[in-house]
Amino acid sequence: MKSLFLTLVLTAAPVLAAQPAAPHAGEKIYQEVCQACHMANAKGAVGAGRITALAGDTNLAYPEYPIGVVTGGKGAMPWFRGQLTDQQIADVIGYVRTNFGNKYKGKVTAAMVAASGVPSPGRDER
Amino acid sequence: MIKTDGRAPTRRELLHAIGVMGGASLLYQAMESMGHAAESQFKGPPKLSGARPGASVLVLGAGLAGMLAAIELRNAGYKVEILEYNNRPGGRNWSLYGGDTYTELGGASQQVGFAKGNYLNPGPWRIPYHHRTILHYCKAFGVALEPFIQLNHQALVHNSKAFGGQPQRYRELAADWDGNVAELLAKAIDNKGLDSELRAEDRDRLKEALRDWGLLDKDMRYAKGLRTSRRRGYDRPLGGGVDAAPIASTPFAFGDLLDSNIGDIIAQHMESQHQTTMFQPVGGMGMIGKAFGKQVEGLVRYGAKVTKLDQQGGAVTATYTDLASGETRTARADYCVCTIPLGILSQIEVDASSGLLAAIAAVPYSNSVKVGLEMKTRFWEDDDAIYGGISYTDRPISMISYPSGGLHSAGPGVILGAYTFGAESYRFAGMSPEQRVQTALEMGSVFHPGRYKENFSNGVAVAWSRVPFTLGCCAQWNEATRKEHYQTLCAVDDRIVLAGEHASYVGCWMEGALLSSLDAVTRLHKRALEA
């Protein structure tokens, strides 16, 4: 009981002392999905083909473009609608638009993904 | 007329009716058209001949589809040249051996530390007996094959929601599954649950069959005893001498079997593409790519990155970067067989119809991660009597597979420590190679605690989304894209035809790549003769 009390005090302390910046809701999604191809630094890569660099990507200026690509896929990149929720898609696009040297303004919302996203095609065959 | 008391006839009834009325050949035709008899569309090599003198073909890609196209077209009399991005033949047909270096997109480089003779097959790793095309060319090109063990009753099944997370033997789970299903079905018959489906005589015959299939006792129960232990194993096996008598084992509760998801695991092995017999080349799947490579020796320009494909002026011209010198060069021919994976081809400037360009851009690629873990000893054989086969888990690695080669030998062996699907593939691919190996080791140790991590020597991990020459595993078609784009993708577009697993319905298998290639060169040859 005593140690439980101590733990509570210790974990509560930083919250009381200062408000540390909470990680962006899209950060974990980026790490667990996007960086498989776009890399941890979002710089993409070049081989026989090219993986787009999202760092400094001017195509991110208008959210409609990344919303279209993430929901509908592009070339080798599969669509992620159906695997990620509209909220998750909005979060990760918001994260990429404001990190890796990108400083695009304007919040991306699930409603925007719902409005301009590509409907999920069937995944019956692989 | 088929008598069915008003309901639609079943497939069996239809086939039976045709068999009675039209004879065996008509029955076979009907079975073929319903896709149930013939398991391969391979009709032997195309035996093309009579190319116009001086006619030439440029092949893009020295994977299996490209090399087979080159071989068959050269045999027909064409002058053939192949451009290949890698510095080796084979494409996705590939094995990693000790001493190899593999650098993935993003720059992470791995030195493979496996002992001599050991390998990881990052791509294809097994060949079904009915993949007649790949089997034909393995024999023709001298690739030695050995059995690939898919189903191993002694292998393990792990599910975090069953048996307190303890893995169980496939043999015990599968035996108990069949036994319980048989018992339940027998009960359904006794409770008159099948009276509307079956005549009394057939209900009796089914019960007799269930008794044998499910090892049911005289009361139609699947119960503990020597009868059921003959299938699921004994607590004390049969021996010799004084304590020779066996002791029966206790079947699992049906609820635990449901929790273990054994039904789905059994279904994995039942798919026609996983049925007995399966094969693998002796010494690694890459032996096939090497053998095909020997056939096209002197025809391949390696380290050539295609950047543009043009078909103006009565010829096909490919622009490519010679990766060794950095120079831009061109290759020209009358026709072109292009086997470049669609995800990469969609980024290359291609001079083709808008329909073909749309088809090329419409097909995304799947992802997967494979991890090879070399173990100092074959403890799974020595301690557990597991010789080849697959242990399944609901953890992200999805399975581990024990080597089918070098069975019962001494020394180190390589376990396939992860073969990921779906979302887990992205999670794994986003890790560094070292993290993938460590994670696979950690997750796989659930099968062999105390020996897995302890015997580990070294590992290698390949994430297909970061493979420089494909950007993914395989083309991912769906019903809508097949309908809209598939025929256009396969059609000869002026002087260019596409080939590869992406231009087949046997997607993601070498067989699909080869069948596509044979079909493509046959049509291209016809087109060339008609020109």
Account of the 3D structure:
The complex is a heterodimer of chains A (126) and B (531). Chain A is built from five helices and two strands, in the order ααββααα. Chain A is mostly helical and 126 residues long. Chain A has a single domain, classed as Cytochrome c-like domain (Cytochrome Bc1 Complex, Chain D, domain 2, Orthogonal Bundle). Chain A has a two-stranded antiparallel sheet with strand order 1-2. In chain A, helix 4 (86-97) packs across helix 5 (110-116). Chain A starts with a helix and ends in a 10-residue tail after the last helix. The model of chain A is unreliable at 1-16 (pLDDT under 50). With 531 residues, chain B is of the alpha/beta class. Chain B has three domains: 57-86 and 294-360 and 478-530, FAD/NAD(P)-binding domain (3-Layer(bba) Sandwich), CATH 3.50.50; 96-155 and 279-284 and 366-466, Polyamine Oxidase, Chain A, domain 2 (Alpha-Beta Complex); 167-260, de novo design (two linked rop proteins), CATH 1.20.1440.240. Helices cover 35% and strands 19% of the residues of chain B. Chain B is globular and about 85 Å long. Chain B starts with 10 loop residues before the first helix and ends with a helix. The relative contact order of chain B is 0.16.
Major beta sheet, strand line-up of chain B: 14-2-1-18-25
Indicate how many domains the architecture of chain A comprises: 1
Rounded to the nearest angstrom, the distance between the terminal CA atoms of chain B is 51 Å
Structural class assignment of chain A: mainly alpha
Which pair of chains forms the biggest interface, and how many residues does each contribute? A-B, 30 and 46 residues
